[in-house]
Write a structure and sequence with these properties.
The protein is an alpha/beta fold. It contains eight helices and seven strands. α7 links the parallel β4 and β5.
């Protein structure tokens, strides 16, 4: 039975179950493929959208937004939840401008606040509380960001964090690089804090889904 259940086969199957996306979403997905840009992709994006709908999120803070692919999924959820705000945060001006174009063409421009800045510092100076925070920044900064994120989420809010499987590198004991160690440390911190209910969903590169009690 195991021979039918390879990891890549499961991931391809999950992507095939995501409903068709419009042209703008498709172009963003194609760009990631061509440029090897690490977006969350359709299966994790759709899961983020689903979770944002489930908690009726209207105040979303996104850390490490790139050119706006994950932002588009959160904006779609917030729009369908009755409107609100999605904070787009990336430190690269070119990516922020690209995101502005995509999100405007998708009709989400009124929902987005763009910050071209470091994400943790931006979260610190942005008044909360938030219904949902998504973290996809440089992995070395994951452990240090957790306390601030917790203080900015409402009770009953959700934290989503990408790359917790780290392409399998977390399982390699010889990999003690700062990013891999930071992912291990972050996973330990969030899963041992009794104020969170946590599951690491094995969608794409591993999506931690944490509910703040
Ligand atoms: C992995 S990409 C993810 C893109 C986006 N979340 C998506 O899935 O479509 C992370 C992006 O955030 C930027 N970034 C990483 N660490 C950051 C930080 N601490 N503050 C602001 N931007 C950051 C990177 O340069 C990159 O453009």
């Amino acid at each position: 039975m195991d021979r039918y259940l390879t990891y890549s086969r499961v991931q391809e199957y999950l992507i095939s179950l995501v409903p068709p996306r419009n042209v703008e979403f498709q172009q963003m997905e194609a760009f990631a493929e061509q440029q090897d840009f690490p977006i969350i992709g359709p299966a994790a994006g759709y899961a983020c959208y689903l979770i944002a709908r489930m908690v009726a999120a209207q105040r979303v803070f996104e850390m490490g937004s790139g050119y706006g692919y994950s932002t588009a999924w959160f904006a779609k959820a917030v729009q369908e939840n009755g409107g609100g705000v999605v904070h787009h945060t990336v430190w690269d001006d070119k990516l922020s401008k690209m995101a502005h174009g995509h999100l405007t063409r998708l009709g989400f421009e009124n929902l987005i606040q763009f910050h071209t800045a470091e994400a943790v510092e931006t979260l610190e100076r942005t008044p909360g509380p938030f219904d949902l925070i998504f973290n996809d920044i440089n992995k070395e900064a994951y452990p240090g960001s957790l306390g601030l994120i917790k203080s900015k989420l409402r009770s009953g809010g959700v934290l989503l964090v990408d790359n917790l499987l780290w392409n399998g590198r977390i399982f390699d004991p010889s990999d003690t690089s700062p990013a891999t160690e930071a992912i291990r440390e972050f996973t330990r911190l969030v899963t041992t804090d009794s104020e969170w209910i946590v599951s690491l969903l094995p969608i794409r590169d591993g999506l931690v889904t944490a509910y703040k009690k």
